[in-house]
Predict the 3D structure of the following.
Amino acid sequence: MKKIISCGILILLLVIGGATYNYYTHTPIYSLKQAGKAIFANDQMSIEKYIDLDSIASYMIDEKLSTNPEILDNPFALGMAALMKPQLVILSKQGILNSFQEVRDRSKKENGKIRYVKDIKILQNDGKNATVEIILYGKNNIDINIKIGMHKMNGYWRVIQWFNANEMEKFAEQNL
């Protein structure tokens, strides 16, 4: 009788453990960790799987244009910006990839440590879209909160927006 009860408890624990692991592997945080691994391994296919670089670059350009009064107040500049946006997206995407390389290089200098991530929080998740906050350590105890938008794909989450890229650029200049 004790063997039956022990086996039943063991099976129950295995089922609970499997269900928990399955749930975790379908969360935004798990996908972010996979994206981080892809960045540090320089795995371009996985980077593209977990991070929509084109959408992020486009969103960053739109954000910069919408906050620049010199462009907003000038119809000619707005038209030129619209014409140049595809090329700007390509350049911005390359800039993002270059920043990934800088992070990899910095990590190699520090014996593979990822010392920047302090915490990851899900701010909002409706099952298809999520807003996630990544808190990074900064020099002089000045941290930064990165807010990103994610979209659920077929069994995983993909980063599609970076809400405060301007702040991240300033942080990177001071801390990288």
Summary: The mean pLDDT is 84. The helical segments are 2-24, 28-41, 44-50, 53-66, 69-72, 75-109, 165-175. The two ends are 62 Å apart (CA to CA).
